[in-house]
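Could you join me in thinking about how sequence relates to backbone shape in a protein? We need material for that, and I hope you will provide a protein of your own picking. Label the sequence line and the structure token line clearly, so we can match residues to local backbone shapes. Would you write everything just below, so we can both look at the same thing?
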Amino acid sequence: MTAILESLLAQAEAQGAQRVTLRALVEEASELGATRALKVLGLMDDHAGADIVELRQLIQGWRDAKKSAVSAAVTWAVRSLAALLLVGLAYRLGLVELMRG
């Protein structure tokens, strides 16, 4: 439990509440809150598990596509830079003029 919750439990216990009752109350409130959150998210039906798996697959697909796109962009940039370097080198060495005439 968190320090705040532990402190509240100790305070209630000091005022006469039984620790077992307080723990049961906290546990029940936690379950109700989690259930409410799942309902709000639409994850309380029989298909919720499959939906989560599908969402994870979609996210992984997005990550893979993003990684592939970045890799392709970097490859394209490096090849373009190398081509420009070769054209510049050819021009500097006078090879471009030999090709014209």
Summary: The two ends are 84 Å apart (CA to CA). The chain is about 85% helix and 0% strand.
